[in-house]
């Protein structure tokens, strides 16, 4: 049957329009790419560095480090609850009444814990009015799914250079951090925030500081917080690595300030130690074949954010004049609060001759090494604090004191309560009731730790 002549123009216009749309979508797909790493002109200049950190109203004698583990929204709520408890805790320091929260110098965070860490570092007091609505009460997993399914992303995702973690970074930037960068974080004047990822190729820790970005000749001040948090939460297989360009060799970087001391120790036959391994990881970026760096969840290299603490104490022995150690050199009291959202849910696999299924085994493949490394890190921090305290005088004004408080479900004495919290899933959305209970229990667990009680008593007594 012939097509009426009056229909021919409409069909032709439709065909032309469809062809034009297809060409446009192909163009969008071909151009979809993660943001380029901002280039750095000269290494060693001003930037987001611990050596430049300064909070003039704080006591020089007291160094407070808060470490918040991974664990999805469970970890975010637990870490936020500790921030709330520190805000409620009044102490007397140098004759002045103040909140213990105002004495926090460093927040080191991984994966889900990076959300309250970055938010508080950026927003300060406003966090306690905004964080619940912006993060805790939202279904970030559903929002991510809707963004992935939106037509605009149908043709970005297949590009090969843009994936669902890049979509997550955009979601964080637009709805949580308002496109704030590390330059904004520095200007906010809050605690120094360390956000950690893991290098897919080497397994080394990758921390979002300018010292790390010097090695790849990138300007961290222009990188968004959303991209860093998306990196730290990019747990496979649900999410994919975040990619950075490696511009090493273009900004005059020649190694960390403590490289010579680390090399001398290794040349003397001593075990290289963490400092040397860290230096080698940074130097590895100078290889010309490493044009790109692919990063995923920080918990895969160490899940509670304590590696930087351990590294700082080792570096204090190796290169005591290192500029990033100024706060540690001044301190007479070092307080480490480790918020560990680790859970050991009950399983019944040992009651059957049938082994666990594929999904359970996949989860265990991640959790066994991550959980064991986490527990090992806590014990290493305990040892380092004891060594640091023992290296100082036992009495007098230069006497050293160390306090390690671990907020963990394992400390709960009530078996039913412990079972409830170890059953909370690792997810980026939780029911309101679970979030509220996590916030409450984290404050209670912190108050009940012996080290925290001893700290408050010592501060009250002026010791």
SS content category? alpha/beta
Chain-averaged pLDDT: 86
Q: Could you give a short account of the major beta sheet?
A: 8 strands, mixed
Low-confidence stretches: 1-11, 16-30
Q: Helical residue percent? A: 40-55%
Shape: globular
Q: How are helices and strands ordered from N to C? A: HEHEEEHHHHHHEEHHEHHEHHEHEHHH
Q: Supply the number of helical segments.
A: 18
How widely separated are the two ends? 99 Å
Total strands: the figure is 10
Percent of residues in beta strands? 5-15%
* Rg value: 25 Å
Short description:
The protein has helices at 8-31, 72-88, 114-123, 127-136, 140-149, 151-154, 164-175, 182-188, 210-215, 225-232, 259-267, 273-283, 307-318, 326-330, 358-390, 415-422, 432-448, 450-461; strands at 62-68, 90-93, 96-99, 104-110, 192-199, 205-207, 242-245, 292-297, 333-339, 401-407.
């Amino acid at each position: 049957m012939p097509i009426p002549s009056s229909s021919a123009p409409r069909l032709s216009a439709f065909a032309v329009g469809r062809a034009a749309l297809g060409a446009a979508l192909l163009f969008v797909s071909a151009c979809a790419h993660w943001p380029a790493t901002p280039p750095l002109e000269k290494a060693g200049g001003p930037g987001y560095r611990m050596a430049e950190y300064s909070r003039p109203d704080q006591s020089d004698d007291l160094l407070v480090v808060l470490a918040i583990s991974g664990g999805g929204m469970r970890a975010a709520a637990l870490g936020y609850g500790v921030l709330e408890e520190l805000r409620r805790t009044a102490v007397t320091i140098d004759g002045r009444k103040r909140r213990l929260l105002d004495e926090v110098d460093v927040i080191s965070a991984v994966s889900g814990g990076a959300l309250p860490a970055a938010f508080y570092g950026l927003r300060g007091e406003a966090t306690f009015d905004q964080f619940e609505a912006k993060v805790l009460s939202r279904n970030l997993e559903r929002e991510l799914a809707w963004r992935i399914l939106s037509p605009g992303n149908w043709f970005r995702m297949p590009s090969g250079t843009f994936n669902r973690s890049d979509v997550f970074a955009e979601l964080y930037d637009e709805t949580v951090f308002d496109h704030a960068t590390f330059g904004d974080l520095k200007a906010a004047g809050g605690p120094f925030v360390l956000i950690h990822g893991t290098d897919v190729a080497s397994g080394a820790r990758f921390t979002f500081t300018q010292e790390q970005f010097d090695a790849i000749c990138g300007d961290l001040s222009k990188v968004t917080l959303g991209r860093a948090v998306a990196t730290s939460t990019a747990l496979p297989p649900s999410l994919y690595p975040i990619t950075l360009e490696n511009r090493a060799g273009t900004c005059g970087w020649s190694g960390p300030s403590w490289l010579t001391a680390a090399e001398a120790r290794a040349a003397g036959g001593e075990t290289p130690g963490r400092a040397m391994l860290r230096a080698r990881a940074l130097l590895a970026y100078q290889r010309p074949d490493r044009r790109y760096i692919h990063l995923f969840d920080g918990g895969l290299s160490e899940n509670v954010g304590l590696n930087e603490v351990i590294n700082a104490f080792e570096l204090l022995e190796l290169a005591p004049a290192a500029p990033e150690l100024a706060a540690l050199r001044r301190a007479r009291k070092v307080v480490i609060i480790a918020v560990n959202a680790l859970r050991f849910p009950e399983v019944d696999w040992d009651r059957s001759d049938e082994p666990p299924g594929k999904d359970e085994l996949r989860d265990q493949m991640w959790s066994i090494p991550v959980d064991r490394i986490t527990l090992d890190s806590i014990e290493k921090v305990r040892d380092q604090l004891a060594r640091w305290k023992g290296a100082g005088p036992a009495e007098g004004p230069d006497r050293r004191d160390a306090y390690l408080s671990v907020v963990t479900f394992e400390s709960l004495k009530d078996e039913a309560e412990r079972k409830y919290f170890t059953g909370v899933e690792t997810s980026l959305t939780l029911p309101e009731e679970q979030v509220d209970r996590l916030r409450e229990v984290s404050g209670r667990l912190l108050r009940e730790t012996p080290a925290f009680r001893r700290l408050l008593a010592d501060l009250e007594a002026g010791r």
